[in-house]
Amino acid sequence: MCGRYVLYSDKEQAEIREIIEEVNRKHNLAVKKGDIYPSNMAPIYAPTPDQNGKSLEVMKWGYEVSFRKGLLINARSETILEKKTFKKDFLERRCIVPAIGFYEWDKEKNKYIFQAEDDEALYIGGVFRQHENESEYVILTKAPVEPVVAIHDRMPVIIPHSKAEEWLYDANAAMGMVTQDYVPLDCQIAEK
């Protein structure tokens, strides 16, 4: 499960800085920097109406649903096409969640941060919907790979930058991407 990620840190990351500046200009909205929690508004790359490129939007992390208390923040990629809540969104409304890294906790409650080995922004795969005049997104998760597998039993689906538009526009290609391990990750223990 991915329950928190980092949009911005003290570590200089040009793409994330540009995302924050564009959101501030386009939406006249001050983006929350640092850790992003469920229910926070955050920048998301979504498909464009003309299906050419990606559009930077602001959405709430988590689906509000009537069948349970609290927000649904993750969806298992292995069963995404079997779940009524997510199937249509996966087929028609995939998004990319830009991040510096994501957190996972081990059984002893130690917090670890996972980031791309090359210090590039991570593109986390997600789906989105419009619900009661608000856009919401969830993060897709999968079985973990190294180094996450030593810490937690799930991890977010990571999309390579070179495959971003394929993820947004090609459902068949996207289905194949959820099982691939394209982006090498670095792991560090995070401050408590």
From TrEMBL:
GO MF term set: lyase activity; peptidase activity; single-stranded DNA binding
For this chain's UniProt record, which GO biological process terms are given? protein-DNA covalent cross-linking repair; proteolysis
Protein name per Swiss-Prot or TrEMBL: Abasic site processing protein
- A Pfam family of the record is SRAP
Organism, scientific name: Eubacterium maltosivorans
Q: Which InterPro entries match?
A: SRAP (IPR003738), SRAP-like (IPR036590)
**Keywords associated with the record:** Covalent protein-DNA linkage, DNA damage, DNA-binding, Hydrolase, Lyase, Protease
Sorted alphabetically, which SUPFAM superfamilies does this protein's record hold? BB1717-like (SSF143081)
Report the EC number(s), separated by commas if there are several.
3.4.-.-
Family assignment from sequence similarity = Belongs to the SOS response-associated peptidase family.
